[in-house]
Specification:
- By secondary structure, this protein is of the alpha+beta class.
- 21% of the residues lie in helices and 40% in strands.
- The protein has 2 helices and 18 strands.
- The strands form 3 sheets. The chain has a 7-stranded mixed beta sheet with strand order 4-7-5-1-2-3-6. A 6-stranded mixed beta sheet has the order 10-9-8-12-13-11, with no helix packed on it. A 5-stranded mixed β-barrel has the order 14-15-16-18-17.
- Strand 1 and strand 2 form a beta hairpin.
- The longest helix is centred in the N-terminal third of the chain and has 54 residues.
Amino acid sequence: MKKTLLAMAVLAMALGATGCSSDKGGETAATTVAESTTAATQASESAETEETEEEVEEESMTGVITGINGDILTVLSDDDGSEKDYDLSKAEITQEFPFAEGDLVEIMFPYETTEDPVPAISIEVLESVIAQNSDPTAVGTVTEANETTLTLEMEEGDSYTISIANAYVVAADGIAAGKEATVTYIGDLDDEAMAVKVVMEDSYDTEEAKLNAFVGKVVQSEENNIVLEAANEDFYTFVSDDMDFTQYNAGDTLQIFYTGTITDKEITADKVEKK
């Protein structure tokens, strides 16, 4: 009797184990099917996306900006002389300076599109009017500064010493070490370039930061032009049809606000302040 009961118990355990094994196999199979379905769906979606992207053919044009209205640029084509509007709201833009009329640009757009304005895919400024009328700038952290020079450490780790004896300085708390500055300069950064403007980070958004000015000593003054000397003994000629410069004497230190670039042969003066 005991042997019979023992045999029945062993048989029951075996059947239970078989059932568990079967259930686990079912779960594994279901999981595998679900994972396969998900992977197939993702692969299908990816293929559809790639196919859609490949279907968009592009063409390009090069031309000059003749009008700017928000995200819409009017461009005169160099190829056929036609003038069209281009929508930049979804375009990839490559530029160093803001758009300006007269900029030479290259625009990519959908092939044979009939939309007006034309939806631009990308636009690159090849020649900037602002760049042609601006002096170069360097952005970095001031590590040292005195009355005549500052040392600027760039993001790449390079450091440059720049003369500031003739610079127009825009700073709420002065030129301070450990703060970021944007320096407009002429010359070679590797050879003690001359700063014409220093704007500290605490004054980036001010109206003063948008102006250009030069500080120097008067060498010669006439009714419509005046010559200033820099600390490095270079000379800069400022001109104006509206100002009389004869009121300033040789040796006076002036700060002259100007339009254009300090490297122009004759620099257009806008305003004069005696220092």
